Amino acid sequence: MYKGLINKYREFLPVTDETPIVTLNEGNTPLIKADNLAKKIGIDAEIYLKFDKTQKSGLCNYLRALVKQNLNLSLSEILNKFIDDEKYYLELNASRFPFLAEYIDDAEFLKDTEDYLKECIKYYEYKEKQRPIIEAQKEFEKKKRKFLQEVKMSKEAPTKKQLYYYERLCKKYSIDKKNVEDLSKLDLRDEIERILNEHSDDYKNID
């Protein structure tokens, strides 16, 4: 029985008998020779297609997603859900991982799967604990970007669009215009916002 990449190439890797090996028997994805494809595109070469349906890495992605969607369940409950679901679909010949038929009852495979699920649970629990820190960092970065943008605007002259809109607002609400030559892009933005807030009910009706 195939035992995964690490065991297959063990003699070439820095592992010993004491090294804990966690594997889902990844690797060994079949390659299918596609002679007709080579002829069709007119090249004198051998073309092989990867039979991705048997890829073990897809199983790893599936297990991570399974854990993420069921963090309210215990490790044993998640493992049992996975085993029960896969056995059901294997019986229907509709499993997304048909290679599991060879391993689904193998004790070593089940132990490795349990170990992998355990690590996934640890990862998502850690990520959840870090959420407040990550959200605080995002908020800090947002405020920093706003501050730097306003510093830049404070050194720039108002845009033509700002000047035009400011003039229309002053005309509509009979407001004495300020000397825009003394205003920065930031100043005029704040002035426009002040006017809009004071006349929030009808500012959208500017003709």
Overview of the molecule:
This protein is mainly α and 207 residues long. It has two domains: 5-135, no CATH class; 157-207. The chain is built from seven helices and two strands; from the N terminus they run αβαβααααα. Strands 1-2 form a two-stranded antiparallel ribbon. The protein is elongated, with a radius of gyration of 32 Å. The mean pLDDT is 87.
Please specify the SSE layout and strand pairing.
Layout: H1 5-8, E1 31-33, H2 35-41, E2 48-50, H3 56-69, H4 75-91, H5 107-154, H6 160-172, H7 185-198
Antiparallel strand pairs: 1-2
Cα Rg: 32 Å
Average pLDDT, rounded to a whole number, is: 87
Residue share in helix? 55-70%
Work out the strand percent.
Answer: under 5%
* Main sheet attributes: strand count, strand direction, barrel closure: 2 strands, antiparallel
Order of helices and strands: HEHEHHHHH
The spatial strand order of the largest sheet comes to 1-2
Count up the domains: 2
**Low-pLDDT sequence parts:** none
* Derived structural class: mainly alpha
Number of helices: 7
The backbone outline, from C-alpha atoms, is: elongated
- Please give the number of β-strands: 2
Distance between the termini: 79 Å
